[in-house]
Write a structure and sequence with these properties.
The protein contains 15 helices and five strands. The chain is an alpha+beta fold and 412 residues long. The protein has two domains: 3-176; 273-412, Heat Shock Protein 90. Strand 2 and strand 3 (347-354) form a beta hairpin. The two termini are 51 Å apart.
């Protein structure tokens, strides 16, 4: 193939790649100067590798592209590799499907003209995917299952990269066997995807069962406390009756006011309409009470329905409240507030605690894996919270004001 043909081929390839890459990671789209540099370097390297027929150039390009994404856009190596591999997989799948269709309806022999038709069509399809498919949301949803996704991508990448390497070595021969090869790749990918979703389904069920086993005793404790309070009501009625016999009207009013306020506060924790949230919040209230910390819970009725799974909701609330309780231990004011609300735009969870401001050098690190100011083998709670929220395209807001730290989670 002539140099200019390789250049044109790579020009189209990189356009398709950039279109989907910026959809998989919106941070890349915002840095236009770096994006142009990436575009130019990838065309130059791809053209050089293609013209001089470098062996294993698909693998080498993956390494180079991940390195460029890391340093041009300040993305971690693993995330850069995931962005690159997902983008390449998407482009290759579109290309091989179009090759299959084109061979069926038109061409039995590979030519540069056929390649141009395929690549132009790929760009059109990539633009449609960019407009209508939420690729970043899909990616973030998959990242929750990093270990499983790594296996999934490996199983999909291997046959696709073998196909790509074979194409680089002998395009005419691969073209002649395209229907058989592509059918095999499609069947393999579908099998892997089906197995992936079945594994995810089993994992979700396992986690849900784990949450039930963890919080069911708490629910039973709540029920038992309600029964105990019903028993206490009889004692309170006898007390009221005794005061009434003395004709002490002021004392009756004061006693009833305190009684109503006490039961109102307790009922607020157990009548959310969501047993799991009630169990989590009530258990944290009991923990706070035992440490002399004032605990306040406010929520909208009906309780907002968040896009996360129940076990993920437990992880978010549990970790944020645990951190809030810990943050009050060396502060003169001991208070934790949990707010769950909804407005026209967002559903929000907010955990507020009295405490010292978070140090500036910790703010950008506090959601990193393994980061903690409490010692070794800590620092996974907030990392897990951030991972869950990011997978659902949620937002984390952090603020310190008037001696209180506010952490708010927002979902659309």
């Amino acid at each position: 193939m002539a140099f200019w043909q390789v250049l044109v081929w790579n020009f189209f390839d990189v356009i398709s790649f950039i279109i989907l890459l910026t959809k998989f990671d919106s941070r890349i789209k915002m840095q236009r100067k770096q994006l142009l540099i990436l575009y130019g370097i990838m065309i130059a390297i791809g053209t050089m590798f293609g013209f001089f027929e470098f062996p294993l150039r698909v693998v080498i390009l993956t390494i180079i592209a991940s390195f460029l994404l890391k340093h041009l856009f300040s993305i971690g190596y693993i995330e850069a590799a995931i962005d690159y591999i997902l983008t390449v997989i998407s482009v290759i799948i579109i290309q091989v499907l179009l090759m299959f269709v084109l061979q069926l309806i038109k061409a039995n022999k590979y030519s540069f003209q056929n390649g141009i038709i395929i690549n132009c069509t790929v760009i059109i399809i990539c633009l449609l995917v960019y407009k209508f498919v939420p690729l970043e949301k899909i990616k973030n949803g998959l990242i929750k299952y990093k270990k499983i996704m790594t296996i999934l991508l490996t199983l999909i990448v291997i046959p696709l990269f073998v196909y790509a390497i074979g194409w680089d070595m002998d395009q005419i021969k691969v073209w002649s066997y395209a229907p058989l090869l592509i059918s095999g790749v499609i069947i393999w990918v579908l099998m892997v995807v089906i197995i992936f979703f079945e594994v995810i389904k089993l994992r979700e069920q396992k986690k849900a069962l784990s949450i039930y086993e963890e919080y069911n005793p708490m629910l039973e404790h709540v029920v038992e406390e309600i029964r105990s309070k019903q028993h206490d009501i009889n004692n309170h009625l006898h007390a009221i009756y005794g005061i009434a016999e003395k004709n002490e009207q002021y004392e009756i009013t004061e006693y009833i006011d305190k009684l109503v306020d006490h039961y109102h506060q307790t009922n607020k924790f157990i009548q959310t309409g969501n047993n799991i949230i009630s169990a989590v919040i009530y258990s944290k209230k009991c923990e706070a009470d035992s440490k002399g910390i004032e605990f306040e819970f406010n929520y909208d009725k009906p309780l907002p329905k968040f896009p996360v799974m129940e076990y993920e909701m437990v992880e978010i609330l549990g970790n944020l409240i645990d951190n809030a309780i810990d943050a009050t231990h060396d502060h003169h004011e001991k208070k934790v507030i949990v707010n769950i609300n909804q407005n026209v735009k967002y559903k929000s969870m907010e955990v507020v605690n009295a405490g010292h401001p978070i140090k500036q050098q910790y703010i950008n690190k506090m959601f990193n894996k393994g980061f903690s100011t409490k010692g070794k083998n800590r620092g996974y709670g907030l990392y897990n919270v951030n991972r869950i929220i990011k997978s659902y395209n949620g937002i984390i807001e952090l603020l310190h004001k008037n001696g209180f730290t506010f952490i708010k989670i927002l979902f659309k």
